[in-house]
Structure formats: C-alpha cells, structure tokens
Design goal:
The protein is an alpha/beta fold. It is built from ten helices and twelve strands. The strands form three sheets. An eight-stranded mixed sheet has the order 1-2-5-6-7-8-9-10. The protein has a two-stranded parallel ribbon with strand order 3-4. The structure holds iron/sulfur cluster (SF4).
Length: about 325
C-alpha cells in the first residue's frame, strides 16, 4: 500500500508488457522533451531539454522501499514526463538494484539518447523501452512536437548508439496513428529504421487512452496486425490491453487511486487488477471519486471508459 504522503511512486498498475508495474515518477507533471499529440497526460506544460535533479533521489528511494511489499513484476521508471531529464536517473537505478531483485525498466521517448551521459546512466537497467513514432522528420514534428533542440537525426543516432552499448533488453515501441503513420508507406520507413537499430523486440501500439489532441486517432487493431508483417522479424501488436483478475483482495485508499489515474488514465479493470481490489470495489471507489469531483470519465476511441484525475499536478 502507498503511504498517504506518496509523491513519486504509484501503482502497481497493470501493464500490457510488464505485468504489475510499480511506477516511479522522477520529473514534475508533464515535464518532457516532447509534446506528443497522442499523450495520455494532456499537453506538455514544461517542454525542456534541461537535465537536473528535478526531484530528490533520496526521497524517491525511501518511498520506493516502503512499496516493495506490493510484489510488483517490474519497477518502472516513467510517469509524468521524460525520465532521462532527471540527471540522477543512473544513481536511482543503481540504488533500486541495491535494495531489491525486482527488475528495473525505463520507458523513454529516446530523445536524449544521443547524449553519452544519458546512455551510460541507463546501463544498469534490466529493460529499456524507447519510442519511435515516425519514419521521417516531417511526421516526427507533427506527432511528437519536440523541443527545438531535439532533432530527428539526433533521435535516430541515439537509438542506434544505445543499442550498440546497452547489454540489457531493448524493446522499441512504435505508436501508430490513423491518418498519419498507420499507412504502409510510413510503416515501411519505420521498419527500415528498426532494422538498423536491431532491438530485441518491436512493439506496435496505438493511442488507446484519451489523447492530448482530438485529432490523434487510434489505428484499428486489425490494421496494426497487417502492418506488423512489414517488420522483419515480425513485430508484436500490444494495442489491446488485457488485464488479469485480481490474485487477492486488498484495500486501496482514494489517494492511491488518484495517484494512479493522474499518471495514466485507467479503466475500471485496470484499477482493479493493478491494486488487487475486486472490480465491484474499484467501481464503487471510482464512482465516489467522480461524485467528489476528483475524477472524471472520458470515452476513448476504442469506446472504453477511462477514469482520469481532475486536479492537474500531483500533490
Ligand atoms: S507521450 Fe511521453 S514523450 Fe510524448 S509528451 Fe507524453 S510523456 Fe512526453
């Protein structure tokens, strides 16, 4: 269970790839090098390339230590923005590894991997999942809306160099959008770059949760499956979220749920599986949060309802 003052650690949340993932958030809400049109957290409020100790590593580690009893499958450094903007991410990963054997994953947009220090700082992670959402510069700017100092060429260079140096698992995530990149000619360009990067796996995704911009349309799952055949070897489509039933019941307080849906819009079953509470209990708690004005329901392109925290920034 999360202590009431938890600021940096959330979940565990159910993840399509990582099982029950305990999230570690090391940059303030929407501090990112990108402002992606599909971002599930809304528009970027602090678009920057400045690396610094955005939050104290000591406090993150203390909080994490108190949450290890939740038995997550992964500890995932991600959250409210781009985690490699934190200058102490390498120290954080080392310290996590010194207190637990639970594998450490980092989800990154890859924009700072051109920087040797950033690549070195991720060296001790078990798994790194960088993103590549476009096969050419024009669409990269339309979809990811990067900080002016981030270039498409620098992104590709960093993705390739990191693969050459990193000894852990490297999964490349490609998020395709209908009308932009879920097109054969665009996917061929992305697949060509992926073959140069040579990740351990390629995952095809789409904008499942409510996006920052209404014009970021999700791609149809069948279309994604067809397009996955353009990659060699074939890639995996991860766009449909399957959640497992709770293994055991536990209590979850309102603040714990709010912290979770602030970082990622969740369905009722996401909350139930992530926090190991019965779906009926999750429904009751989520509805109460909606009535209290602390959460709202948004319908996504896949016609599922997602619960989203109303107040913007974590307390
Ligand atoms: S999707 Fe990720 S990389 Fe894009 S704006 Fe949101 S947090 Fe940043």
């Amino acid at each position: 269970m999360r202590s009431p003052g938890s600021k940096y650690v959330f979940g565990p949340v159910p993840s399509r790839r990582l099982g029950r993932s305990l999230g570690v958030d090391i940059v303030p809400f929407k501090t990112c090098t990108f402002d992606c049109i599909y971002c599930q957290l809304g528009r970027t409020t602090e678009r920057t390339v400045e690396r610094k100790e955005w939050v104290p590593v000591d406090k993150v580690v203390d909080e994490l230590r108190s949450k290890l009893g939740s038995e997550p499958d992964y500890i995932t450094v991600s959250g409210s923005g781009e985690p490699t903007l934190h200058s102490g991410i390498g120290e954080l990963i080392d310290r996590i590894r010194s207190i637990t054997d639970i594998p450490v994953a980092v989800l990154t947009n890859g924009s700072l991997l051109w920087n040797e220090d950033v690549r070195a700082s991720l060296g001790q992670a078990h798994l790194v999942v960088p993103s590549l959402d476009a096969g050419e510069k024009g669409l990269f700017h339309v979809i990811n809306r990067p900080h002016p100092d981030v270039t498409f060429e620098g992104l590709l260079d960093g993705l390739i160099r990191f693969r050459q140096e990193f000894r852990g698992e490297y999964w490349l995530e490609v998020l395709l959008l209908a009308g932009y990149t879920a097109l054969e000619k665009e996917v061929r360009k992305i697949a060509d770059i992926a073959s140069r990067i040579q990740p351990d796996r390629v995952h095809l995704n789409t904008s499942v949760r409510p996006p920052a911009e209404e014009f970021a349309f999700p791609a149809d799952r069948r279309r994604l499956v067809e397009l996955s055949g353009l990659f060699s070897p074939c890639t995996e489509v991860i766009a449909d979220s399957r959640v497992t039933c709770p293994r055991q019941e536990s209590e979850a307080d309102d603040l714990e749920i709010v912290q979770m849906i602030r970082r990622r819009p969740c369905t009722l079953l996401d909350v139930s599986a992530g926090l190991r509470i019965h779906p009926a209990q999750a429904a009751k708690k989520l509805n109460a949060l909606v009535h209290k004005g602390r959460a709202e329901v948004r319908r996504a392109g896949n016609r599922q309802n997602y619960y989203v925290a109303i107040s913007g920034k974590p307390k």
